[in-house]
Amino acid sequence: MIYFDNAATSYPKPQSVINAVRNSMFLYGANPGRSGHAFSVKTAETVYETRELLDGFFDGYGSEFICFTVNCTHALNTAIKGILNKGDHVIISSLEHNSVTRPIHALKEKGFITYSVFSVCEDKEETLENFKNAFTRNTKLCVVTAVSNVFGNILPIKELSRVAHSMGAYFFVDGAQGAGVIPISMKNDGIDCLCIPGHKGLLGPMGTGALLHGNVDLKPLIQGGTGSSSFDLNQPENFPERLESGTLNVPGICGLKEGLKVVEKIGVDNIRKRENEICKEIFEGLKDIKKVKLYRDFYNEELYAPVLSFNIDGLHSEQVSAMLDRGGVAVRGGFHCSPLAHISMGTNDTGTVRISPSFRTTKKDINILLNLIRKIAIKEFI
């Protein structure tokens, strides 16, 4: 199988990540923060080291302000529901994933909040103007994706955060497609809360994620055992315990730790450069295939992350994806849990076929993909 679905989850995982998950069952099998014996303390130390790595990687506000979650969706729900009060107004972008849209829409349906959607455009100034116009007197929160999971647009995070803060609103970022792919600095970019998956660009196992914040007064999504203050029936006020109840996914955290080390060793800039080179080559190849529809006129590495969507005239995206699968190539067809993005680009009837390579994608992989798409487009491969 040739794998072009790294925007869903990275594959294959580095061997060091696989080894870390396996070895954790032997080396870190005790419950961190739940016992005073040496085995538990040793496990707690590796969890703490992973917090420190995340804090340094994203230029965060301290390891105590990092909460481990089961995925990015869990982190986003914790952040969004943890900050909002009845009557608040929220702003989101026209490219948001359902992990942002659904919790916010659910709160709106309950009459708890209101929200607005601003259009992301090719022109940055127009995007910023649309964003400014979405504010109301009670706007409490802005939530935007760092990178569109469908079309690869990189949003102007730093400029958007400045506007949000000037209007007295919090600025939260969905880092699902940006973490490990583009540089993200919480302090420099003005991010109050960053939600990330561990299993995509950070190369860790599925079932891992994190919420990083700047000492934001977040209410916990769940309450329970934290290994501290057991006779207090109230959830602890201090972080990270306030947001972390129950036993952590230690094997996953150990794998995430090793994934972070791999990404740091290679360098985010080097990964992005390589993946953009691959995406650009695929883009240029697709441009020459009749009946293939692309959703940008040219490939601009500054404006887009290495995620590429296309369609073939007369075929639904899921049909094309299925045919590629039969040819041994894994891509994703459909709507990618992002209806707003498809509505904004007019692909809400067919969805798109999404290609997301990795820095390990080879020239041979690219040629096989393009040859298959050519055959599908001229109906030589059904």
What structural category do the secondary elements indicate? Answer: alpha/beta
Mean pLDDT, to the nearest integer, reads 95
Low-confidence sequence ranges: none
How many DSSP E strands? Answer: 13
> What is the CATH top level name of the largest domain?
Alpha Beta
**How many individual helices?**
12
Instruction: Give the termini separation.
Output: 18 Å
**Spatial arrangement of strands, main beta sheet:** 2-8-7-6-5-3-4
CATH superfamily annotation of the largest domain = Type I PLP-dependent aspartate aminotransferase-like (Major domain)
Quaternary form: single chain
Question: If you compute it from the alpha carbons, what radius of gyration comes out, rounded to the nearest whole angstrom?
Answer: 21 Å
The CATH architecture name of the largest domain reads: 3-Layer(aba) Sandwich
Name the helix and strand elements from N-terminus to C-terminus, one letter apiece.
EHHEHEHEHEHEHEEHHEEHEEHEH
As a percent range, the share of strand residues is: 5-15%
Q: What is the helix fraction of residues, given as a range?
A: 25-40%
Tell me, briefly, the overall form.
globular
Largest sheet data: 7 strands, mixed
Characterise the protein shown here.
The protein has 382 residues and is of the alpha/beta class. The chain has two domains: 15-265, 3-Layer(aba) Sandwich (Aspartate Aminotransferase, domain 2); 267-377, Aspartate Aminotransferase, domain 1 (Alpha-Beta Complex), CATH 3.90.1150. The chain is built from twelve helices and 13 strands. It has helices spanning 15-27, 38-57, 72-83, 98-109, 124-133, 157-166, 186-189, 250-266, 268-287, 317-326, 339-345, 363-377, and strands at 2-3, 66-69, 89-93, 114-118, 139-145, 170-174, 193-197, 209-213, 292-294, 308-312, 329-330, 332-334, 352-355. A seven-stranded mixed β-sheet has the order 2-8-7-6-5-3-4, with helices on both faces. Helix 1 (15-27) packs antiparallel against helix 8 and helix 2 packs parallel to helix 8. It starts with a strand and ends in a 5-residue tail after the last helix.
